[in-house]
Amino acid sequence: xxSDKNHSDKHDLMNQSIENRKAVWSVIAQIPYGKVATYGQxxxxxxxxxxxxxxxxxxxxxxxxSSLPWHRVVNSGGRITNPNSLAQAARLEDENVSCRDNRVxxxxxxxxx
DNA sequence: TGCCTGACTTACA
DNA sequence: CTGTAAGCCAGGC
Length: 113
Known about the structure:
Layout: H1 2-29, E1 37-38, H2 39-45, H3 52-60, E2 73-74, H4 85-94, H5 106-109
Parallel strand pairs: 1-2
Helix pairs in contact: 2-3
This protein binds a DNA duplex (13 and 13 nucleotides) through residues 17, 38-40, 43, 48, 50-61, 70, 73-77, 80-85, 88.
C-alpha cells in the first residue's frame, strides 16, 4: 500500500541515521592510543564521506561518561576546535602527543595516512 | 517553513 | 597566514 510504503521509508531513514551514528562511534573507538584522526576521515571511514560536520555534532552531544577517545579527533589542519580545548590538549599530552597552541602534528600522529 | 549556528573541509584570493 | 565562499548535517527558535 502507499501509506505503508511512506511509513516504511521514514522508518528506513531513521534507522540509517542511527546506523550512521553507530558507525561514527565505532570508527572513533578504533583510533589507537597516541594517534589522532580528522573529522573528515572519520566520516569517510564511517561510509558517509563529506559528513565531517555530522561527526563534530555527535562529539558535541557526547555524554560525559562516554568511553570514546573523543580527544583523538582534530580538524583537517591538526587544530583542536573543541570548545574545551584545554581538556583535549591535556589528554593528548598524556598520550605523548605534543599539541602546542591547540595544534598537533598530523605528520607524526595521524592515524593512517 | 525558513534562517542561523556549530568540536568541518576544500578551494581560492 | 587570513578571509571568503560553498557544501554538508542536525538543532534551536
